[in-house]
Amino acid sequence: MTVAGLGFPLRLDARGRMTVVAGGAAIESSLAVLFGTVAGERVMRPDFGVRPDWTEQELPDRMRELIAAHEPRIDVAGLELGDLAQRWGTPRLGWAAVRVEYVVKATGERGLFEGRFEWAR
After folding, report:
1. CB burial class (10 A; 0-12, 13-18, 19+) of residue 121?
2. In CATH, what number is assigned to the domain containing residue 58?
3. Mean pLDDT, the chain, as a whole number?
């Protein structure tokens, strides 16, 4: 069974309806929302998202934990972060280029998610 959901960013199709995504696109949309959210932004889910107070050294392990907790459809095969040193230690801003290689648990299908994210403190 393929699960479908709203895509991110939210878009309208030609008929004015919200676009729906499924499969790898749904997983990648979910990861974009997860990594694009600062922990605490969602009142009912305060642990959802990235905490800018995580250190540069702990960030990869913490992001793996986030994926395990909030995206149960996949196993992480690889996670790389880039551009961390440029601003990560500043008091107001953290940012990183994120690359996640994953395997869909139900099908064994491999996927790749890439994005760049900024988190204000």
Report:
1. exposed
2. 3.10.450.40
3. 84
